[in-house]
Every structure is written in structure tokens, then in C-alpha cells.
Amino acid sequence: MRQRQQKPSSSLSSASLHVLAVLVLLLLLPQDGFSFIITTTATATATATTRQMNDKRSTSTKLQQQSANTAPPSWEELSDITKCDEYEQPIAVNGGSYSSHPSFDDDDKKPILYRERHGWCPYSERVWLALEVLEVDYNTIYIDNIYGRPNWYNGNTPQIKWPDINGGKIQSESMDLVREINKRYNGRTGNNIDIDLYPDDIVNDVINKINEFDKIFPRCRPSSRAAFLFRYDGETLLKNEFETVLKKTEELLAGNNNNNNNKDVGPFFCGSRFTAADIAWVPFLERYAGQLPCLHDGLNPKCQDKYPYLYNWYKAMETTVPVYGCRIRGDHSSWRKVLTMAGFANAGNVPQLVNNRMDEITKLECEPISKEEYKQQQTLWDQYVSSSSSSSSSPSRRKRKYVSSSPSKEAASVLIRNRENIIKDIISKKRKSLPTDTHELDETMRSLAYLLCNIDGDNDNDDDIRNYHNNNNNNNINVKALASFLDDRMCVPR
What we know:
Elements lengths: L49 H18 L7 H8 L9 E3 L17 E5 L5 H12 L5 E5 L15 E3 L8 E3 L1 H12 L17 H14 L22 H16 L21 H20 L12 H13 L1 H7 L3 H6 L14 H14 L5 H16 L20 H11 L1 H11 L8 H16 L8 H10 L1 H17 L5
Parallel strand pairs: 1-3, 2-3
Antiparallel strand pairs: 2-4, 4-5
Helix pairs in contact: 1-16, 2-13, 2-15, 3-4, 3-7, 5-7, 6-8, 8-9, 9-12, 13-15, 15-17
């Protein structure tokens, strides 16, 4: 159902969020039924409140009215539905588009994060996660490590330019940056957030667990897209080498659950608290979870029977750290896809056995999620939007006001904001399955955005959506083709 391109491009990824993976759902609209299957890390549902029930009745009425029309809503109307233009987005620019260092009006007030453009660099992910967890207000400049850094930029990614006097200091090295971020912005510095990545009472344990990463992970060819997977000669590490890494990681996590050590018991690397140790490990374990099952049979870091503590750690990261589960974490589909980019290992072809494993895993991921899972994921999204550990959120407490109220609406918002670039990209690729007429393509994109705006987790308005879809049958094939194109075209971990 999900078609995988051997060499997908990432040209649009700098303007994309992880929720764009939701677009593939349009491929899954059968003629004799209707099923939403969404493979993003946080999918849309509805929480049981009177306000939302009223919203659903309003949505159903709008869909019924719209299904009688042949044209989807205008971009202005869609923007009003998603409220994507109501609040200003955080500043994030592509460094390659500037001949000299970009300047911002608030350079003296906000740190500037220089991170790898495509979302692949695990070290950039560490720093990005620390900034988001501590709710730091910062600007971003994307640096393209693959296709060429801008002439004005020196060094690797990540780096941060601090808002200090005399032009600001530029600092690098991911975990040094994480510690400096914590020093400047944790709860002890008056940032009004109860998170400390290096708590005083366990700071030595945090540092030791960070250092264990370098001891446990294998020494092999460096890569942002395929970290710690291949030897320098291009051969995949042996299965037992990967199993050794997972076993030692499991043992490290198990130590947090031994009361005899008088340690704080919990699923994270240092017990019940999320710390810098988890930030150090998560980008690499995240990639392993998506990529190792493709390389060897029976190699799954998330296997609860074989690695129960590692399983619990993954679950805690994905369900109790909202900003990671909803914004930072890469989806498994994209981490599989990057294995096929720029050649497998040292510019070799992907072995057929690996391709077969990818196809099998993709089929499994296309299984529908339950209503309960839908609700749990929407609850996590609500927490992310409000930056709150509470399971309830209200508009008055909403801190990330620029984020839509559900992942599906956020996907629609990304589509709306980037529609001109997407249309240019589609036309340049000359995909036969898509319209070549700009007006027809524009209408197709609006139809897709409108459907994304009207997804909820209880399936109450499925009939209305299906009626809208069927009444616009001429556009139906184009909408499915567009969803397929975007899913294939963008290798976007987030």
C-alpha cells in the first residue's frame, strides 16, 4: 500500500513536520468501506468533552454542505479551519538560501540553533530535543550537510549561537550544548518549568550513563542516516554484534530497577526522571528500532520478551515525553527509507532480503489502530501543544499556539503553508499520475487538505467524509495519487 522509492528526495523536508506521514491515509480508502490508517507517531482522535462533541456536529454539517459542491474550500477557508495563520511560526530558515549569515530582529535575545536540514543528524536531534523539552524560545538555521553547507558556515552540526553581548558565542559538541542549555534554561533558572536534565542528586549517574553510550555502541562507519550500522567496507554489522549492543543497553536500564542499589526506580536511564542521559541515547536507539529489523531476522530492539527494560524505555519516551513523541521522534517508515538513499552501505544496492523485510514491516504498520489508541495519542498531542504533563489542556494554557489542535490538522497546515513549493516540485517531477494543469493540481491539494481537516478518532463522520469524497469522484483518483506522491517524495523523519 505504501510505495517505497529507492532514492527519495528530501528537497522539501526543511519545511516539513513529522505529521506529513499522515498524508498516506488517502491511499487507504477502499471502495466498499472506509478505514483510516495513520502511521505518524502521534495520530488524531477526539477527547470526550462537550465542546469537541459540538465541534464534531459542526464538522459533519460542514462536510454535508461541502459534499453538495464540486469544489473544495479555498485556501483562505482552509487556513481558517486549521488556524495555521493565526499565530506566527517559530523562525526557521534554510541557511543555503543566504549568501551571508541571516540576521534576525531578536538575535540579542534568542539562541540560534544550527542543525542539519533534513532531520537525519542524531547529534542535532540531541540539542533540538533539549531546547524543546525545556521550552526555550529559539531560532533555527538549517544546514545541509549532504549537499553542501553555505560558505559563511564553519564546522559541523549542531552548533548554537548564544544571545550574549559582543556578538554572541558560538558553541558546538552536542552534549556540551545540552548541558549549557540546561544550565541556562532549566527550572532552577526561573524558566517556569519543572525539568532539570542534570539533577544535583544524581548528576554523577547522569554523566556516567552518558559516557556508557560510547562504550556500548560499536565502532563503525559514521553516518547520520545509518548510524552504527555498517563497517567501513560497507558490510552490515553481524547480528550478534547488534545483539551485544542491545543486551548491554538492557542491562544498563535494568540497573535502575534494582532496589538494592538504593536507586530511583523507573524506566529511564536514571530512574523515574527523564534526564540528559536519555537525550544522549535516544537518537540512536530510535534509529535502531526502525532499521535493525530490516537488516537481520529476529532483531527487534522493541521486543518485550527479549528486552523488557528497553521496551519500557521506548514506551516511556514515546508516551510520557510529549515533545519527543509528537515533534522530535522519527517514524520507522522514514528511517527504513533512508537506508535506500544514496546507495545501501557503501553505494551498493539494497539486498532483496532487506527489501522484503521492509515490505513485510510496512504491511504490519498498515493495521488500523484502535479507538483507545487514537484517544491516547490525541491526549499526548494535547500535552505537547500545552507543554503540560497534565492530561487535560485548555486554550488558555496553550503554550505552542502555532501548533494545530490535532496531528491531522497539523499535516493540513503544513500542506497549506507550503503549497506553492509543493506544486512547483510536483510539476518539475512530471509525475504521470498527477494533474499537470496548475488549477487542477491546486484543487487536488485543497481536497486533500480538507479531508485532513475533518479526521477524528471516533469515526462519527466517516459517512460524511466518504460522501464528500464520492461526490467529488473526478478528483478522487488525483487526491490518492497526491497522497502517494508526497509520501514517496518526502523522506521526513518528523
